[in-house]
Amino acid sequence: MSSSGPQPSLPVELWLHIFRLSTLSPLTTRLYVVSYSPFQTIPLEAEDESVTKKTKSALVQVCKQWRAWALDLLFEDVWIECPEKMSSLLGDGSGCGRWVRRASLPYMSSATVSPRPLEANKMLEQCPHLEVLVRKGPTRRDVDTRFEFAAECPAMPSLKRVDWWHVNEAARSGGINLLGDVLQKAPNVQYLSLGGYVRFSSLSVNGTAITLSSLTTLRFLRLNAALVRQTCGWSMPALQHIIIDTVEDVAVLSMFWESFGEQIRTIELGHYLSYFVHDWLSFILRGCPHITELNYYIHFTAIPTFDDEKDTFPLLTTVGLHAQPNMMISPESSGYWGRMQSHFAMLCCPCFPAVKKVLLYGDWSGISSDIRYPFLVQPLLDRRITIERVET
To answer: What is the structure's pLDDT at 92?
Structure first.
């Protein structure tokens, strides 16, 4: 029986929870993460799904009350393509800028074609709670992206993560276009993604040293020798986790291991064919003698070769294996199972005396349901190594 009186409304907290859940996608968490978690990386150019953005826009247009409740969701992730319009929209520190948590600033929006202060910097100053800054490259060819004058960089004490693609021409202008200047203005960065081809430019002003006292995770998007050489001079006392998406010549990491190899505890390799063609896993492990956790894509990584007498990793206790498929290997082929068997057997060799846990990420259903799977994992179980599936 229906009541003639007004129906009770849901509590505000429940509405806010519903709005939050309706604007989440599988990418959302990965875009904001500031501490290491296995296999949570996404391409630098990735943005949240369009349906998420459309949902946010729809919520604020329903009524005034819904607009008030959902406006922070609409502005939490911004793309600064037109800084002039965005700056006026965000207003001062008491305006919409206080809701911005992540900002993607393309290089075309920070070009210094005149000596006037950059509108992009004014916009960033209006975001006191900014946590993630993304600089993508290369620049668009149909936009005037000259970098002829010096740029400034606002203070960003709330910044915890920087995803940065180095562009040599832009770096010459300094400020918001130079990684070193940004990091000096953001002393609390915990997570740094770094890529690009450094040629004759520097990552910092006049090559001055960079101190990152809070940085725990460093992700190399793509390496060249000049880029690695400059990072070797940084001070990163809290650094423990290294993610290496891809590397064209693993030898360039030698100098980095000399500077930081002793303090690295976690290594993750990306799903690129460079690891499939060459045995770079063994080389990388030898540079980090105190590693406790190793994560890699089993179908994208060559079977490593170790010397049982010289190579030993006594602190390695956890290995994460991701099952993302490699189109170059058919699951029906004998080589497919042979490679997997070699990887699992490797974990039982004398080089890894302390391994206690193997975590399986991704879709292992096709593998675990095969009659060959028990024979694959039995050697690990015989050594009392636990095998767990991780839902991602």
So the answer is: 52
The percent helix, strand, coil of the chain (3-state, each to 5) is 35, 15, 50
pTM over 0.85: yes
Q: How far apart are CA 62 and CA 64, in angstroms?
A: 7
Chain Cα centroid distance, residue 85? 29
Position 223 scores a pLDDT of 80
Which tokens belong to 365?
């259903």
* Angstrom distance (rounded) from CA 180 to CA 326: 37
Backbone angles phi, psi at 132, to 5 degrees: -130, 125
**In this model, does residue 354 exceed pLDDT 60?**
yes
Q: Given strand 161-166, what is the order of strands in its sheet?
A: 77-79, 102-104, 132-135, 161-166, 191-196, 217-220, 241-244, 266-269, 293-297, 318-322, 357-361, 386-389
Question: Phi and psi for 285 in degrees, rounded to 5?
Answer: -65, -35
d(CA 198, CA 218): 17
Residue 85 confidence (pLDDT) above 70? no
Q: In 309-323, which positions are buried (b, 16+ CB within 10 angstroms) versus exposed (e)? A: eebbbeebbbbbbbb
39: tokens are 């296999």
Strand ranges (E), 22-76:
none
The token pair that represents 217 in the structure block: 């995770």
In whole angstroms, give the CA distance from residue 262 to residue 253.
Answer: 13
Residue type, 185: K
3-class SS at 194?
A: strand
Residue 298 tokens read as 């089993």
Look at 130-139, 335-344, 361-370 and tell me which has the smallest mean pLDDT.
130-139
| Residue 6: pLDDT over 60 | no
Nearest to 178 by CA among 159, 157, 196: 196
Handedness of CA 191, 196, 202, 205 (dihedral sign): negative
CA distance 382 to 380: 5
Residue 210, SS3 per DSSP: coil
